[in-house]
Design a protein that fits this description.
about 375 residues; mainly alpha; about 75% helix
Length: about 375
């Protein structure tokens, strides 16, 4: 590679993450400026929380809930890896999980947290494709659990004619979309149970013909197929995902509650409402093109609070509080990274030089909830 080409690679390596930070900071700045001063009859702005006595004990409780949710994602990954009979320990799941959390939350780039986890898991094994499949299916099960929680909560409220669903067209559409998604994916899962292996392999070869995304889709298809033979593992992972995301919702709710006046009635949507819109907001934040979804999360939660007749500033503060706890957890991941730095550098070299691994594990949504 010539010096000119190397310079281009270096510029691209730093330019893309810088642009992501700029997008996130720009959106965050707009949101803060828009909602800084109190406006309207409610008289609540972001500035208000800085001049009153807040409920900081709930901020600590939010951090505990987030830590519980994140720990469950590491246990879920361990469970899915062991389901494929790969040698792996729960200690390694937590170590690599925390390092991946740090990279996905604060350091977006060409080598993300998922790629590092895959490199560590596959570097001493022959079954590299299977190792990569555990990362892909773990992400899929995490997202599936998030949508399933929303479908369950929203569906239950729909049956009871809950106002958060019945009176708000946007929430109603989101619940219908979640229910439809669960029905379709459930049907596909049942279909895979009777699909012969030769047809599964043939479909994989067809996916490879798709430009750019072909190899990624083929690998994900293979991952789903491998795990379909171990249905109990996926169902167990889905149960852990849904249970873990309960703590995600609680973490956000308590973070929002922490910024409410201590001696006044909290002005927030109900906890039941949070079980509908927090999963949707977290999914949006996970796909927003900025580190940890910064800016995007504050925008969407402010918008959702406003749609439910609650000051947008309260939802923005909830997102701020939740984010501060994710940064604290990310700092813990950074400390683990320092202890593993030498091994990680070797893994980065392997991951960067393995074009097949890079093509199979592209940069994916990295919500701070680690779906």
């Amino acid at each position: 590679m010539s010096e000119f080409e190397r310079a281009g690679v270096v510029r691209k390596k730093w330019l893309i993450p810088a642009l992501k930070y700029l997008v996130g900071i720009a959106v965050l700045a707009i949101v803060v400026i828009r909602h800084w001063e109190p406006e309207g009859e409610d008289g609540v702005g972001l500035k208000s929380a800085l001049t009153r006595s807040n409920r900081w004990e709930f901020f600590v409780l939010s951090g505990m809930c987030l830590a519980t949710c994140t720990a469950l994602t590491f246990v879920r990954w361990y469970w899915l890896v062991r389901a494929q009979d790969l040698p792996f320990t729960l200690r390694d799941a937590f170590r690599l999980g925390l390092v991946g959390y740090f990279f996905n939350t604060l350091l977006p780039g060409s080598v993300g947290g998922d790629l590092l986890k895959a490199a560590f898991l596959a570097r001493e094994q022959q079954r590299r494709t299977v190792a990569i499949s555990t990362i892909l299916i773990d992400r899929g099960v995490g997202l599936w659990g998030l949508i399933a929680l929303m479908a369950a909560g929203g569906g239950g409220m729909w049956l009871r004619d809950g106002p958060a669903v019945v009176d708000h067209a946007g929430m109603s559409r989101a619940v219908r979309a979640a229910l439809t998604f669960m029905a379709l994916t459930g049907a596909v899962w049942l279909f895979l149970g009777v699909l012969p292996e030769r047809r599964a392999q043939r479909f994989k070869q067809r996916l490879l013909w798709i430009p750019k995304l072909g190899s990624v889709l083929a690998e994900f298809w293979l991952a789903v197929w491998l795990y379909r033979r171990r249905g109990h593992a996926v169902l167990g992972g889905l149960a852990m995902s849904m249970f873990g995301h309960v703590f995600t919702v609680l973490a956000f709710f308590f973070a929002a509650l922490a910024f409410q006046p201590r001696h006044e009635t909290p002005h927030l949507p109900s906890l039941a409402d949070h079980f509908i819109f927090v999963p949707a907001g977290m999914a949006f934040q996970g796909f927003f093109p900025s580190p940890g979804g910064i800016g995007g999360g504050e925008f969407i939660f402010g918008l959702m609070y406003a749609r439910l007749g609650v000051p947008a500033a309260n939802g923005i503060w909830g997102s701020f509080g939740f984010r501060m706890n994710t940064w604290a957890l990310g700092f813990l991941g950074y400390l683990v990274y320092l202890m593993m730095k030498r091994d990680i550098q070797r893994a980065v070299v392997v991951a960067s030089g393995d074009t097949s691994m890079n093509s199979k594990l592209p940069e994916v949504a990295s919500s701070t909830t680690q779906v």
